[in-house]
Amino acid sequence: MEASSTPIIDHGAEMHDPDLYQPTREGFGVDHFEDIGAAEIEHFNEQGYLIIRKGFDAQEISDALQGMQDLIMGKNPDFKGVVFEAAAQDKLSTLSLTERQDAVRKLMYFVEYDKRLKAISHHPKLLNAVSQLNGGKAPSLFQDMALTKPPRLGREKPWHQDNAYFNYPLDTPVVGCWIALDEATVENGCMQFMPGQHKKGPRIHFQRRDWQICDTEMLGQSSVSAPLQPGGLLLFSGLLPHGTPHNSSGKRRRALQYHYAPSDAQPLEDQEERLLYFGSEGKDVSC
Ligand SMILES: O=C(O)CCC(=O)C(=O)O
User: Which run of H or of E encompasses 97?
Assistant: First the structure.
């Protein structure tokens, strides 16, 4: 099996100021999907997030990891959505297919190429939870990604709001779901966020290391972290400011990220409204 001859490379590997990520506590959560009740829904509405510590079991996570690895190894030649870390670009041609696993930054739009990854994204307990958090609407998956953050290489995802990337009307209750496939820690780049700040609405983003909130707005602010065991997940509002630092550890930090809008939500025809609210430098951006 051959890997793609023209690998897609991510846009940059610039290092960030370590003071951008200063978690002072861990986020609130429950153990299981079944534990979501009125108090948890209220928490999500007020704080913009909810952690489910034991959402998926070991078999589901190992199936998902196998699905991801198969796609990276080129086992489905129709799949072209593997993006490599810019920091690995120079040595990519020297790496074996197995070694390439640790040079990947992300996979984009894969659910139609692997049934194990689709099964997680459409798992009834996940869809039910998203529906509980979006006001009772049936959720529809509109974006799927895997973010692999390889050991010592995985780049930062600077502070941002996901809705800054999506062409939906501002009041659409977009829910993000970030599922840990490895143990995610502060050291290997678990999610960090600013609880409650989804309520402040859209923030202007700029093209810097990425399409992001300006560093000067985030420097020195204390954040909340979401360390997770494999199978744990973070559900979060599309307006919640969040980011992940560079993986400076020797440990992998692979994750799936799915985004859902209510199935009756209509995407906008163009980017104009998004650029108006989130900043004019955000033309054609992708996560
Ligand atoms: O997994 C990560 O490192 C960050 C994911 C994220 O926030 C995004 O892609 O929007």
Answer: helix 97-100
